Amino acid sequence: EKLRGIDLVVNAAGIFHERRQGDFSRVHFEGPLHLFQASRVAGVRRIVQISALGATSDATAPFLRSKALADDALAQFDIEWVVLRPSLVMGAGGASWRFFRALSLLPFEPAEAGELVVQPIAIDDVCRAVAEAATRDEADGRVIDLVSSEPLSLRTYLDDLSQAMSGRPRRRLALPWALLDILGRFAWLKPGAPVSRDALRMLRSARQPYDSKVCQLHLGLQPRSVSEYLAANPADRGDRLD
Asked: Is-contact 51 83, C-beta < 8 A?
């Protein structure tokens, strides 16, 4: 009944690690499936599903597989739908944004950082994408990756953040993935932590760039590059202390 008279539903529910086994399925698939069913019955015109970059049924990370289950289920409903799959999100208050900025100031980096590809997207570009997905006919029935226009290696991304935060890039030692995996096992101790075993799996598998032109084609939106975002949002002393 709460959906009667509603034109648009945006599902943004998500968790980054499980506190209990099955949490991914409950939050990313079972709950959204009930929401999609209720939306169809209530006469909702369109659903925008916020998924995650790399979400596929055969992904190595359970986080991504659970997201893909909901994406695939939504596509079977007789309703207008759009699936948005954002990359790492840049923006004040974001857990991953704080994590990568802090990491950029440390003398460490994950092994193979020069080979890993990231395309972070600004939070306001994500919001614009949701607004466009709500109304554009071209977006209906599309799965759209939300990525910045310029693929970067993880090392370059950390260097750019370090330059923005402290005025200079840093020399870093490579941390082996085995050690990072051990750290990821204890992420559940801190709710909302951006690091988990799934997050590390996703990062380590990031080897290929995504095409940002798809976003422009279906949403009329060209996400900004990391350098453009950092230039428009310079770090201050409060950011460095945070």
From this structure: yes
136 and 209 Cβ atoms separated by less than 8 Å? no
Question: Given this model, what pLDDT does residue 169 score?
Answer: 72
Q: Distance of CA 220 to CAs 90, 131, 137, Å?
A: 20, 11, 11
Q: Are 189 and 115 in contact (CB under 8 A)?
A: no
User: Given this model, what pLDDT does residue 189 score?
Assistant: 53
Residue 83 has pLDDT above 60, yes or no: yes
Residue 188's pLDDT band (boundaries 50, 70, 90)?
Answer: low
Q: Got the DSSP string for 168-223?
A: S----EEEPHHHHHHHHHTGGGSTT-S--HHHHHHHHT--S---THHHHHHHS--P
pLDDT value, residue 50: 98
Which tokens belong to 193?
């932590």
Nearest in space to 55 (alpha carbons), one of 202, 154, 212: 202
Instruction: State the Cα–Cα distance between residues 148 and 224, nearest whole angstrom.
Output: 6
Over residues 25-50, mean pLDDT: 97
pLDDT attached to residue 125 = 96
CA pair distance 184, 6, nearest whole angstrom: 40
203/142 Cα distance (integer angstroms): 25
Residue 111 and residue 57: Cα distance in Å, rounded?
27
Write down the pLDDT at residue 92. Answer: 86
Q: How far apart are CA 20 and CA 29, in angstroms?
A: 15
